[in-house]
Amino acid sequence: MMKGQTKERNVVISLLIATFLTAIEGTIVSTAMPKIVEDLGGSHLYTWVISVYLLALVITTPIFGKLADLYGRKLMFTIGVIIFLVGSMLSGFSQTMGQLVLFRLIQGLGAGALTTIPFTIIGDVFTFEQRARVQGLISSVWGIAAIVGPLTGGFIVDTISWHWIFFLNLPFGIISLILLGTALYEQIERKNQIIDYPGILTFAVSMSAFLYALTLLKDYENAASSILAFFVVAFVGIGLFIWIEARAKEPMLPLSLFKIRLISVANIAGFLISFILITVSFYIPLWVQGVLLLNATLSGIAMMPISVTWLIGAVLAGRWLSKTQSFGRIAALGIFLILLGCIGLSFLDAHSTVPLIMAETAIIGVGFGLSFTTFTVAVQSAVDWRLRGAAMGSNNLMRNLGQAIGIGISGLWLSDELKGSVLEASLHTIFIVLVIIAMSAFITTIVLLRKAASQ
Q: Would the pTM of this model clear 0.90, i.e. be above it?
């Protein structure tokens, strides 16, 4: 598929940039959110800026994964990046919180391609030994973005304007498109492809209803009937979606993927640790600014170690996988470190220092680097070209769903008071929940992979 080391290198650079765009999105926006709310108002829409982006991401991730199997990686990647850049530009021009929520929805629709297709291309282009190393490099971008995101976000917010955190996506996205467009060559069979429109529709409706119901839970007393109605629509829709997928000729999400033990473990654990990822990224800056009463730049510094150590964990995972292929041990070690870091966060108080928080995020970062890299390579290697897009789509679906549900569920304990002891108490509860989630991920990984080894 590829000719020449230059083209291969350009593909990697393009994918690094695309991954950087999606990786930096969470850290840079979460760091800037307190200032955005102060500028635009609409504090009741605080979590919606994140939730609506994740909602769109959840819906489009498996769709782009399947369409990439049908029409090729390059075409669907290009479409996704263009949508993402349009949403980014509009978000930068937002004048009200309502506009920002709408434009973040558009941005999230395109982000589904950026979170899935790069990993699919890696599985296509590289051998297993190369794949582990390249995936380690790609995963390390999340660490780099986590460094650049909080620091850049804090600096831009404090010195220029939060609008520019969205405009920064434009040059990077254009460069990524040019590099991939000139370096990746695909031979796609030209035929009338069957698109699973009923599956796409039922999935979109059921996921939208489910995630919207989660956002209403905080106002349960006034919205009980609406919450119940949306949950009913969601669960009926999910049941219908499974029925459709079991009978479709080209299912958007092939149910056979979930019979592969390695993919099932990667999806379940990926869901749980993504819950932790979004919550840590979103609420540690809020702790620093709302409880410790420090500025946005210092909240970015508090998050900085997670990026450095994520990179270290990703590189180590890539090296170990290329030598041993010990998916279970490496993933379990990563999740155990995440658990230790979450336990540390649960002991924070109003007198905790930024260096102490940095120590906790450093431990969590190594865990993310090890576990996410290992699970990604596992899914890439479990299927062939024909199903790789759908497989990566399912894995990224579970990760994105974990983030979307994470921000929705954790928001139930978030106080409307964004400063002081009340905020401290609510965030403390959230960090305890993270300990429970991390323990669940660790036990799930150990138990399921032991069963797989004994079969």
A: no
